[in-house]
Design goal:
Blueprint (H helix, E strand, L loop, with lengths): L1 E3 L8 H8 L9 E6 L4 H6 L5 H10 L2 E7 L5 E8 L3
Parallel strand pairs: 1-2
Antiparallel strand pairs: 2-4, 3-4
Amino acid sequence: MFSCDGYHDMNDRVDYFRSLISSLRPGGRVAILDFHPRGFFSGMFGHRIEKEEVRREMEAAGYQLLNDYDVVDSQHFQIFAKAER
């Protein structure tokens, strides 16, 4: 699954991603790309979320962080997988 610039707008994110976990194929991943809470675009329109908040919510939904990339200055990009228990 890939979420691009929409995670910050979702309602009940933890519940939503928790409900998706059973739909992931073995080895499936969730990639989330969203805006840092800085910069002109995110400040002007309120389209932003801290990457730490994304990580906390995804962990609460049952995922673990696999990779965290800083490829775009205005955005964060994280990849999650179902947490091993």
